[in-house]
Structure formats: C-alpha cells, structure tokens
Amino acid sequence: MQTFDLEANGLRALNEKLQAQAQNTNETAWSVVNPRGSHAIAVGLDAPIEVTVNGSTGYYCAGMNQQATVHVKGNVGPGAAENMMSGKVVVEGDASQYAGATGHGGLLVIKGNASSRCGISMKGIDIVVGGNVGHMSAFMAQAGHMVVCGDAGDALGDSIYEAKLFVRGAVKSLGADCVEKEMRTEHIAKLTELLAAAEIDADPNDFKRYGSARQLYNFNIDNAY
Amino acid sequence: MCGIVGLFLKDKALEPKLGTMLTDMLITMSDRGPDSAGIAVYGEDHEGRAKVTLQAVDPDVFNGLAGEIEDECGVAVKLRVIDTHAVLDLPEDKLAQVRATVKSLRPDARVMSAGEVIEIYKEVGLPGEVAKRFDIPQLTGSHGIGHTRMATESAVTTLGAHPFSTGADQCLVHNGSLSNHNSLRRKLAREGVTVETKNDTEVAAAYLTWKMQEGATLGEALEAGIDDLDGFYTFVVGTKDGFGVVRDPIACKPAVMAETDQYVAFGSEYRALVNLPGIEDAKVWEPEPATVYFWTH
C-alpha cells in the first residue's frame, strides 16, 4: 500500500504518479490522505490499480477513469467520474451535480444521494445510487444503466435515448419521451447483477423500469411551428 | 464563478473567532473570483446604539466628520476609520437623521450598511488583501457572510462588490446572475425602492428588503423570490438574528452546508469548510433547489 499525502505533496505530483503506473505495476494499492475537498483527484488513470481517497473531494474526482478502481471515503463535488471509460468508482457519501456525466463505461456507485443531472448524457456507463437522484438525471442518456434505490427528482430521463433506468422509490416527474416500461426477465437479471456489483442489498423486484418512448427519434410535422 | 462563505454560530465560545474563521474560509475561495471581496459581520448588540459603515475613495473625507455630525444633530457619535471605510457608532433613534446628515455633509461617502449590529467591508482585490486592509480576522460576532467576486453583470468597483445591504441589518451575497434585474429595478422604483448601482445582486437585495417592508419574514421573502427572480443564483442572506440560504430551481451554482452543535456553515465548495472545528463529524449536505433554509438566534 502506497500512501500519498495530498496536502504535503500537491495534486500534480499525485496525478503524475498515478497516471504513470503501467499495466503490470506492482504498486496496485494506493491511499490518498488529506484530500480536503481538492479538485481533480485521481483523474485520467489508466491501469488496474486501486486508489482509496480518505475524505471528501471537490470537482471532477476520478474523471476519465480507465481500468482503475477509485474508492472515496467521503462526499464528492460536481462532475465525479465524468466521462469514465472503464473501471469502477465508489463513493461512500453523497455526490454533487452531474456525477458520471457522459461516461462510456465502467461502474459508478454512489452509496448516498446524488444531486441534479446525475448521468447526464451517459453513453454506456452503469450508475448505481443507494439514495436519491436530483432533477434532470439521465438527461439525454444514450446507453448504459442507472439504478436508483431511493427517489428520483423532476424530469427523469428527459429526451432519453436507449439507456435503461431502474428506480425503486418515487419519481417526481418523467422528462420528455421517458416512460415506464415492463420489467422483463433480462432486466431483473441485469439489475441483480448491478446491485451485486455495487454491494447494495435491495430486491430487484421492488424496482420499476423507465426508458425511451422513442417518439423524438423522427421528425414529427405536428411539432413544427 | 464567485465564491461564497457563511457562518452562523450557535456556540457563543466561537464568537471571538468569527472574523478569523470567515477570513480563512474566504481566502480558500479566492480562485472562484479575483475581482473584489467583501464581508458582513453581525457583532455585539449594544442596547440603544446603532452603526453605520461608510466608504469613501479618499478616506480624508472622514476627517472632522464626527464633530460636524454632533454639531448638526446634537448627539455624540464615535467614528472609527479603517482604510477606506469608517464605522459610525450612534444612538439608534438618531439613525435616519444621521444618515441624512452624512449624505448632505459628505456626498462622496457611501453607506455600506446601517443597523444595530451589522458592519460591511468590501473592496476591489483578492480576499486576502481585503481581509488584511480591514483587519477582518479581529472582528467578533454571532454570524457573518463573505464573498469573492468574478464580475459578470456590472463593473469591477467597490460598489459592485458583495455583500449588498439595502435594509437595516440586512445583507445578501450572490453567486450567479439574474436575467430580469432591469425590469425588476423599474418595478421596484415604481414602488419607491431605489438602488444605487447597475448590479443585478443589489436588485435582489432590494427586492427582499421591499418584501420584508411589506410584512414578509425573510423566509417568506426568499420563497417569493423563487417566483419573481429570474436567472441563476445561490443566495446567502443575513439579518440581525438570522441566516438564510436559497438556490434557484435549476441549482447550477454550487453550495455545500455543514451543521454541528457549534455552528451552521456555508461554502461554495467543501474546501471552504475543511478547517472548521469538528467538520469530520458534521452533518454535510447540498442544499436542495428552490428550497429555503433559515436559522435564527
């Protein structure tokens, strides 16, 4: 286990060190202490390493992640795991706005609540939230899955493409073209798999599925002014 | 951008440290706005006394002012000059008369704040410089709000700096920008409420003052603002005994709050809160959109 004191050594040194790890590195376990709400912690990683951040972070934690597992023992600021490609990011606390935005792959787990615009424009990432998500979550979500064990705020899945949304609690309102859909066997199987990967104990049968009604895909003359 | 910090103390033992804590929090937020910085502090209440904070480009205008006010108004006043600001200490029942007298005696001096306990210091420059100039760390009090500005809606001037105060013991700081401030400014003018600058935030402050003059509580005024103020905002407001926070319904502008038995704290980012006592065990949360949060002593 390598321990890195962010306050003593600075952000640039941390990210240089983590980004320099090769595919076959022996230094696979890293601990970051004194994050103190700093921005851009553990961004741009591309090696199968495990990074534990001991405390809360600021903006853009674990952005652009590939292969790595980043575990945050605290809350994260706006834009956590933005544009993640692969790997895993686990947040023990809450996440601020647009967590997992534009992510292409990997798994983002938020044990607490996520605020507005969670998973905006997601392109293949899987997001599992133990608590609630705020308004405009999964806006224009193209691919991937979002699991919400609590409630969802206003305009869930507005202008959604082909991402699949699972919500256990109440949905305040659905956005344009987002509708409730049937939970088939394959959806229960996928949800079971995601909850297991996120280590969240919940019954897949308690969830409802939401997705695209596919009414915005084609030009509709009746909508023209 | 813009950075906001706020501190509402529940534990009286922390009151001597209010200025130090707020300064530390605000300096952490410096890179959210380099243009100007300001701080409002709610100090000790002396029965029957009031304060007016004045600002002048040339502090020489304060020379002899106390004596001239005494001659004009027939009351004893104390004047403490700090750099470009001066704090007048006067009998509470003479507040309106003294304000009017200052305006006629020293038209170049601006009133930053007036009330029983509020003092406001604000100037162009970084929080660290502004705090040093006005010796903010030595200020004591029960609650306070600080702001560091990245100017968008009006010029970089002392008067464009936050906090804005448009009513007795009231102040407001703002991160965001309002899109209907010109029409609202005209509407308020028709109601007899005038503002001094082209700044959008001052209009928001004047709107809240007007609502409260009409009989609303600060909480009710903030609720009404959600309907009447168009644009994006995180507002942190202070009154003589209260501290409030509200975000617009879209809530793009960041906000983090922390609460313990000793204090309620606000920061634009969590970084601003990390040095507060007991922050590791504090309740930390992000204020919900279009929701009014309010604490009173």
From TrEMBL, chain A:
Coiled coil: 1-28
Domain of life: Bacteria
Gene3D superfamilies hit by this protein: Glutamate synthase, alpha subunit, C-terminal domain
Keyword vocabulary terms for this entry: Coiled coil
CDD domains in the record: GXGXG (cd00504)
The protein's name: GXGXG domain-containing protein
Source organism per UniProt: Roseovarius phycicola
Lineage: Bacteria, Pseudomonadati, Pseudomonadota, Alphaproteobacteria, Rhodobacterales
UniProtKB/TrEMBL annotation, chain B:
Gene3D superfamilies: Glutamine Phosphoribosylpyrophosphate, subunit 1, domain 1
InterPro entries per record: GATase_2_dom, Ntn_hydrolases_N
Keywords: Glutamine amidotransferase, Transferase
Residue ranges occupied by any Glutamine amidotransferase type-2 domain in the UniProt entry: 2-297
Record flagged with keyword Manganese: no
Keyword Transferase on entry: yes
One Pfam match: GATase_6
SUPFAM superfamilies: N-terminal nucleophile aminohydrolases (Ntn hydrolases) (SSF56235)
PROSITE patterns xref list: GATASE_TYPE_2 (PS51278)
Record-given protein name: Glutamine amidotransferase family protein
Organism: Roseovarius phycicola
Lineage of the species this protein comes from: Bacteria, Pseudomonadati, Pseudomonadota, Alphaproteobacteria, Rhodobacterales
